[in-house]
Amino acid sequence: MDQDEFVRVVIKNVLDVAVRSTHKVLTAPPGRRPTPEALSLSQWHAELGQSDKNVLDNAIRETADATVFGFLCTDIRSIAS
Q1: pLDDT tens digits, the chain, 81 residues: what are they?
Q2: Would you kindly state where each structural domain of the chain is located, as residue ranges?
Q3: Which listed residue, of 6, 27, 51, 66, carries a Cα 20 to 30 Å from 43's Cα?
Q4: Where are the alpha helices (DSSP H) in the chain?
Q5: Contact 11, 68 (CB under 8 A)
Q6: CB atoms within 10 A of CB 26
């Protein structure tokens, strides 16, 4: 696996999954008894207009992207210490 393929795999299996999972939690909190926080977020999300939902989706995507980028740019020695 070369570097480009590694990045594509990370984007597909980490970044995209994180974005989709976050969206699922916002639209339908998981579990038999979702936490009060999850229910509150879901209710808040349901009350947003489509334009605000689009902005939130972009913010979630940017956050996931920054997190993956930060992880990939972190010196592995600093994680071990």
Answers
A1: 888 888 888 888 899 999 999 999 999 999 999 999 999 999 999 999 999 999 999 999 999 999 988 888 876 656 556
A2: 3-80
A3: 66
A4: 3-10, 16-27, 36-47, 50-73, 76-80
A5: yes
A6: 20
